[in-house]
Amino acid sequence: MPSYPSRLITAGGVACLLALACSDDGVGPIVPLVSCQPIAGGDFLTRGLYVDSFPGSRLREVRIFFSGSVAGDYTIALTVRRNAYDGPFVGADTITINVPTTASDTVPGSFLFANPVIQSGSIVTFQLGQVSGPGALFYATPANPGCPATETEGTTPPLDTFRREGMGLRIFGAR
């Protein structure tokens, strides 16, 4: 006879687990905190980006949209910090995505985190780096003034030089 965990999961909990919508450490449901639709266009991964007022209490996933100059597999690293590009470490993840043949197509890349605590309202920075790939990689950076993410010229602390407002970006976490 199979062994089952002693923890009772309700029907809603099962749906939550199947949709990866709950945290695994009991912090509550994982919800969209920032949801900015990507539009064709991009910029180099050497540019930084930040959210100047984090709208949650935990970070689970950052989804950024990429395009490339050459089709193929690209490996990308993302480092997340608080308050500045050299501020306290929040987390890091490395992923591999397959980019199609045309630079106008964007591909989502989902970076996952273990629900680190982030004080609501704090600045959260994101630094990207291309680890490998057959060509240049870009991330969606259309001007989208309704989006709370800001792009900077680089990642020089504390927050480098403003480049534009709004990014193709989705952030998930706990409120």
Give a written overview of the molecule:
The chain has 175 residues and is mainly β. It has one domain (28-173): Sandwich (Jelly Rolls), CATH 2.60.120. Helices cover 5% and strands 43% of the residues. The strands form two sheets. Strands 1, 2, 4, 7, 9 and 12 form a six-stranded antiparallel beta sheet that branches. It has a six-stranded antiparallel beta sheet with strand order 6-5-8-3-10-11, with no helix packed on it. A hairpin with a 6-residue loop joins strand 5 and strand 6 (89-99). The longest helix is centred in the first third of the chain and has 8 residues, at 11-18. The relative contact order is 0.31.
Overall number of domains: 1
The general outline is: globular
Q: Tell me the β content.
A: 35-45%
Structural class by sheet pairing and helices: mainly beta
Overall strand count? 12
Radius of gyration: 17 Å
Q: Helicity range of the residues?
A: under 10%
Mean pLDDT value:
83
CATH T-level fold name: Jelly Rolls
User: What is the annotated CATH architecture?
Assistant: Sandwich
The rounded distance between the terminal residues' Cα atoms is: 40 Å
What's the CATH class, please? Mainly Beta
- Low-pLDDT runs: 1-20
Helix count, per DSSP? 1
